[in-house]
Amino acid sequence: MLNLGCGPVQPRGWVNVDGSHRAWFAAKLAPIDRLLTALGIFPKTEFGPHVRVLDLRKPLPFADGTVAAIYSGEAWEHFEPQVARRLTQECYRVLAPGGVLRVCVPDGVQFFSRYLDLIEKANQTPRGSRAQSVAEIRRHVQLYFNDICTRRPGLGSMGHFHKWQYDEPQLLALFEECGFLDVERMPFRDSRIPNIADVERSDFLIVEGVKPDLGGEVA
Fold it and tell me: Are strands 181-185 and 67-73 parallel, antiparallel or unpaired?
């Protein structure tokens, strides 16, 4: 079972995969990482040689049909749509028939619903008393422009910036277009994948799909 974009969530029984710079450093240069951490130059990290470092923009290094389940919490939004599509297709390729892909991402509907709520609140505020309401709107809008951008100049697009905003129709369609069946939005920690609570930490937009068997029916 693969845990893609694991971050600090690295349970036993899963192949925990991460592609961040810190994961690479802690896995590939572990003695130096420990030294720099001890000196206070690097913060403490859960990463280390036990985490498999992969660039998820590239093909997954697993044979066709060899993976039972794939979970990813808050990773798909860090890729531009065409990259996320290729990664979803790669997940389909490596999953065994009946294998499950489950992806959790921030829900755009929640973000924009909050924005509309703040607008309504400001509109109902008496004239001359709107400064606080407007400040809340600005903070919410600034969050979007700080964290979500498909292409930033130079090194700005690296790191943990979001590169897409998903909603339920988009994510369901992505799974279906890549060949998954029984695609549906799922409740938090309610899954076809056993022991999902070991990896799932966020109750955002969660979608799950099943790779069909060779006869086209779900196992």
Answer: unpaired
